[in-house]
Amino acid sequence: MSDSCLRAHKGTWRRRSVSLLAGSVLILTASAAAGEEAPSAAELDWRPKSQLPESVRNALPAFCAGGYLPSGTGEGNSGIVGAGAKSPESSVPLQASGLHAQYEIDRELHLQGDVRLQQGSFQVTGSEARYRQSSGQVAIQGPLVSRGNGFLLTGERADYSVESGRFDINTATFLLHGPAMRGSAGSLSRMSDSTVQIRDGMLTTCGPQQNDWAIIASDIKLNQAEGFGTAKHVRLEVLDVPVFYWPYASFPIDDRRKSGLLYPQFGSSSSGSGGFLAMPYYLNLAPHYDATLTPQYIQGRGLFNEAEGRYLSGFGQTTVQLGYINNDSTYADENPEKSGQRWALDASTRAVFGSGWVGYGDYSAVSDEDYLRDLNRSLEINQATHLLRRGGVRYQGPNQYFDAYLNDYQTISDRIAQVNRPYAQLPEVIYAGTAEAGLFEAGLETQYTWFYRDNESLTGLDKANGQRFRARPEVALPMRALWGFSRPSFSLDYTRYDLEDYSAGSGSFDRTVPVVEWDNGLYFDRQSSLFDVPYNQTLEPRLYYAWSGAEADQNYIPAFDTALQTFRFEQLFRPDRFIGGDRVGDANQLTVALTSRFNDLVTGAERARFSIGQVQYFADREVTLFGQGGGTRSRSPLAGEVVLNPLQNLQIRSSGLWDPDTGDTEQGRSQLIFHSEDYRYLASAGHTYSKGELEQSDIAAVFPVTDRVSLIGRWVYDSDLNRTVGSLAGIEYNNCCWSVQVVHQNYLTNDRELNSRLLFQIQLKGLGGSGGSSTSVSDAIYGFNERERRRFGTP
């Protein structure tokens, strides 16, 4: 500093910047020209989409017209960004500059014109500032702009403490860059880089001048470090109209969890007697466990409660869900002989113990068969006939597999006869392993099961319960080359039974069936091009022979878990036409099949696959499952499948069975699936046919009418019933601060009635949402889950 500057007790300097620490004064660089009046915090960093950096622009959904510049790149920042989240300390010098400066040594510094102050990560610009060295306070006149670590503030007047870092602004606006949350306040106190106290405030995630929704409160505290805000005397306004009031609220401002009320859920259902209103409350009890309580009122039924608890341990996650209503008035009126008390329970657990060991458990139960139709809104029960109860441990190693579990069901429909109800496995133990033995490969599959079900009202074989042990050792000679493969194998299928309540003789007996297989294939390929795209075409003929020396009459054995396999292309290469262990099919057959693939040599993608095959039978099939599964024809229907992937986002699949003897199609399933790269457009069409049993067609689509409005629809038609058996129609609106879905759904119940319900989902971006339409739409439309993930930016 010059001598004249040091001698002056009071004087004026122009275009000077100073750095102050413990009373010392240092002359720094000249300042920029005087600034203009600052806009609001949101307006300062908001840009139309075309003016944003490419990385920000590409991350914005199509329905957003613009966004905010990243923290630290806005105007008025001088290119300086706070390096950390710590509050300033007195040891860090305060840097100040202005067009005009007047300084009283050890007393006051007065700056005017394009004033800029910085201390650590804190910085502010204004029109005038007075710094009192004795108190460490700076009074700043606006219009002022203050930037911190991911934070932007503007206001008319402010006070700043050099010692504590506290910053108080009157008539303030603010912007949180992370959650893109903006607002205004009568007064605002920045307690630290991460904490802000707002009085008479408003906040929203809508863009500047777009108050579609806003939270208004007398006192708001935002804590970026912990990821939540609290507010007193809160009201939610939609288009400046109050729609809800809370005396106190706690809400997230990022994706971290926080206890508090969630947004109301509401909707309507013909099976649920009308409208419902739910008020979920989330409890963040600890980092590794939480709960959600959802009391709700259902028109015509009364007060209904659902609860969910989640627990995360070092091994895995456990989830328990419960629904309960003490007196369902509608159900009691419709079923006078039954109680109006209804409940449901769903629990699941997964644990990873390491070294390939996993534990698991699932348990579901309901009070009555109509619960899922009438009341279920959140329980993850997706079976409407038999509810699973299963728990066990599993091991998966390089060459070994082990699984031991207990398995049972609750059959919730009274209309299902006892003879048609499944057996419990108490327990079932499975082991499988393979080993190399020189040129040979040895394998072993074993299964032990104790089958049980209530047999008091049953007779004959249906009454039997008991144990079954099955072992299938195999020896194979695998031969592989680039041009093909051959794998002959020999196995013995051994089964032993020890049964109770068995009426066809002794309950202890066994069965041994020799099985021979020989699988062969060749690979041919050639390269060519189509539309200037090089591709590789393969031709893969395959011969598969199977012989089984099973005894013809096995109907003295109960059917514990056995059924006839659905015949399709994959079954051409299996020796047995039954699944389960109570029947081993007799076989003397040869499969002839051909597959051709078209692979894109640029991307490596498989663009097309064509497969066709047929089984030639050399003997009649005499083994049946109580009359099903036998046959005398010499050849099977032709089984084929076609898979086309002409585009990255388009797939066409078709499979079916065609009988050359009758010229009839026995079965068929065709499906077209399309989604745009960003999943805004979704479309699917399908047709399912089974001769004499079923013929259904379905179409589904999500189609954007504009960048913000999309139509949602699905329709399922049954040709045999000559009626619609399911439909879904809705509309969705999206912008950058809120979205809404309204969906009307028709669905066929077990008693062949077409019920309907109206579903809503409202999402206030940054604060969560309400309703349950997305779950139903996701179940109905392929790709909708991915679309929701991208729409809300979830991982």
UniProtKB/TrEMBL annotation:
<dbReference type="InterPro" id="IPR045659">
    <property type="entry name" value="LptD_2"/>
</dbReference>
<keyword id="KW-0998">Cell outer membrane</keyword>
<dbReference type="GO" id="GO:0015920">
    <property type="term" value="P:lipopolysaccharide transport"/>
</dbReference>
<comment type="function">
    <text>Together with LptE, is involved in the assembly of lipopolysaccharide (LPS) at the surface of the outer membrane.</text>
</comment>
<keyword id="KW-0472">Membrane</keyword>
<dbReference type="GO" id="GO:0043165">
    <property type="term" value="P:Gram-negative-bacterium-type cell outer membrane assembly"/>
</dbReference>
<dbReference type="Pfam" id="PF19838">
    <property type="entry name" value="LptD_2"/>
</dbReference>
<dbReference type="InterPro" id="IPR050218">
    <property type="entry name" value="LptD"/>
</dbReference>
<dbReference type="GO" id="GO:1990351">
    <property type="term" value="C:transporter complex"/>
</dbReference>
<dbReference type="InterPro" id="IPR020889">
    <property type="entry name" value="LipoPS_assembly_LptD"/>
</dbReference>
<feature type="signal peptide">
    <location>
        <begin position="1"/>
        <end position="34"/>
    </location>
</feature>
<comment type="similarity">
    <text>Belongs to the LptD family.</text>
</comment>
<protein>
    <recommendedName>
        <fullName>LPS-assembly protein LptD</fullName>
    </recommendedName>
</protein>
<keyword id="KW-0732">Signal</keyword>
<comment type="subunit">
    <text>Component of the lipopolysaccharide transport and assembly complex. Interacts with LptE and LptA.</text>
</comment>
<dbReference type="InterPro" id="IPR007543">
    <property type="entry name" value="LptD_C"/>
</dbReference>
<feature type="domain" description="LPS-assembly protein LptD central">
    <location>
        <begin position="233"/>
        <end position="311"/>
    </location>
</feature>
<dbReference type="GO" id="GO:0009279">
    <property type="term" value="C:cell outer membrane"/>
</dbReference>
<dbReference type="Pfam" id="PF04453">
    <property type="entry name" value="LptD"/>
</dbReference>
<feature type="domain" description="LptD C-terminal">
    <location>
        <begin position="341"/>
        <end position="708"/>
    </location>
</feature>
